[in-house]
Design goal:
alpha/beta; globular; binds ligand U87; two-stranded antiparallel ribbon; 9 helices
């Protein structure tokens, strides 16, 4: 019944148009809130941020219940248990920090650091160029050497290794379908992605976080690993004195479902619950997760 079909097609077309417009409106709305997040970061202060999160008690290498040693232990295990390997490691949303690649730099021949803010990229480039930085990373380097069964004085060798394998410090935007500039990575993608406290701290909602997880997948080769560290139960953090940056408050179930909805196979999930004195007034985080996932 052509008329019928005709009618049918017309109808789809008809119904189509409003739906497409709806989608466009939705995308515009999403874009607006993502834009608002980007605006939040303009006042981000790398030096203040490092003081807030990378000094004692959160970074106390004498305390087993301190956050940073827990993160370093998770990364050390993941990078040394043998299945995470290859040539290219990319750190997504590095911020002004280097701790997240201090184990991986021994396993990968090329490490790419990335961040949205030039201020953070400059902080990283300064340390790579001449070791000057707003935070002394040597206690971190020594601690990771200890985890590797090496003497702490090997930290200078690790610093040289880090400087030797970090090939780029690139701009990134996880809200773009291609977060990095075209040609930044080999055509098949990176062998491993690591990302710490980025996605939940830059996404206006869980839907946007899941889209960002999908965008990261486009940067990873099939069979590659994603090592994801993030905050649980957090609604804000201070990016500078008085600068509250909104955070998507996640629970473990949302972490798992977000990874699987983005096509990753979750291999390991560990959770750290903050003790009272780790709550130092720079955020309202309640826990930290470490997820090891693989892209089929
Ligand atoms: C770190 N990785 O400290 N696309 O581990 C890509 C973007 C975008 C965008 C902004 C959040 C800090 C979390 C680093 C930096 C992580 N940054 C960049 C903080 C919050 C819990 C907690 C924190 C830190 C932006 C340590 C500890 C705890 C930042 C980075 C997010 N509270 N990247 N569109 N927009 N960024 O410039 O550098 O993401 Cl222990 Cl508990």
């Amino acid at each position: 019944m052509p008329g019928e079909r005709e009618g049918q097609e017309g109808a789809e077309q008809l119904s189509e148009k409003p739906k497409r417009e709806e989608e466009e409106e939705e995308n515009d709305e999403d874009e607006d809130v993502v834009e608002a997040m980007r605006a939040c970061y303009q006042g981000f202060d790398p030096a203040a941020y490092l003081q807030f999160n990378y000094t004692p008690p959160r970074a106390d290498f004498q305390r087993a219940d301190s956050i940073v040693p827990w993160k370093l232990a998770c990364l050390h295990r993941a990078f040394t248990e043998g299945d995470v390997r290859g040539e290219v490691l990319v750190d997504v949303g590095s911020g002004p920090t280097l701790y997240q690649v201090m184990s991986g730099c021994e396993v990968f021949g090329r490490v790419v650091l990335t961040d949205y803010l030039e201020a953070n990229r400059r902080e990283l480039q300064r340390w790579l160029r001449d070791g000057s930085s707003s935070l002394d990373w040597s206690p971190y380097l020594e601690h990771v050497c200890r985890l590797e069964g090496r003497r702490p004085s090997a930290s200078s060798e690790k610093a040289s290794r880090l400087r030797a394998v970090v090939s780029d410090v690139l701009p990134i935007d996880v809200h773009r379908a291609c977060p990095l500039a075209p040609g930044s990575l080999p055509p098949q993608g990176a062998d491993c992605l690591v990302s710490c406290f980025c996605l939940e701290s830059v996404s206006p909602d869980v839907a946007s976080l899941r889209r960002a997880l999908g965008h990261l997948s486009s940067m990873l080769r099939p069979g590659g690993h994603l090592l994801l560290i993030g905050a649980l139960g957090e609604s804000y953090y201070l990016g500078a004195a008085g600068l509250r940056i909104p955070v998507v408050a996640l629970d473990e179930a949302q972490v798992c479902s977000s990874l699987s909805s983005a096509g990753y196979r979750l291999q390991q999930l560990s959770v750290y619950t903050l003790t009272a004195d780790m709550s130092v007034g720079v955020d309202d985080v309640t826990g930290v997760f470490f997820a090891k996932a693989r892209k089929p």
